[in-house]
Amino acid sequence: MKNNHGGRRAAGATSSNLTLPNAITILRAFGIPLFLWTLFSGDRDLWAILILIVAGASDYLDGKLARALNQYSRLGELLDPLVDRLYIAAVLIGLTIRDVIPLWLLLILIARDLILATTLPGLYRIGKGPLPVTFLGKAATLNLLYAFPLLLLAQQNGAAATVAGIFATAFAGWGVLLYLLTGAQYLLEARSQIRGASDTVTP
After folding, report:
1. Is the pLDDT of residue 12 over 50?
2. SS (H, E, C) the chain
């Protein structure tokens, strides 16, 4: 059985929704409107960068704590990837409006999630919810979360901005590639499970 960050549930693990990893995930969700406010309120880019750094670190931390504290929950299984997707969508839209990233990149990544959303009715119909996050899926998310503050930092002046731009390109490239690759994997797996369930009940 999976915990809320993709690891195996160990014997004796707690199943309560009131866990530290879930609290960190919820706090990360509250960071979404705060980030957008700093991004568009003028002269607060450094605060926006700091929020993105904290978001990336917390996304790594809640998974580590879930395993270290042996805490899992069904809420966490659903909440963690949902908050990740909302964070990515909000940041992509914000950075596109600020002309930090091109519009075509925003459209590709949002289209990926919209296509995956079409599998949810079929999965719920066979008694399953969203597919658990895979290792590559988490790697894709982390690469994008690491790329976002670097992309914003690259818009500033100075040598640090130049260096940030190099690393931002690398993280963004790997993140987009893995995001699309895992999207294809999730889509194939969801369709396979739906088809398999349909074949089972067919007389």
Report:
1. no
2. CECCCCCECCCCCECCCCCHHHHHHHHHHHHHHHHHHHHHCCCCHHHHHHHHHHHHHHHHHHHHHHHHCCECCHHHHHHHHHHHHHHHHHHHHHHHHCCCCCHHHHHHHHHHHHHHHCCHHHHHHCCCCCCCCCHHHHHHHHHHHHHHHHHHHCCCCCHHHHHHHHHHHHHHHHHHHHHHHHHHHHHHHHHHHHHHHHHHHCC
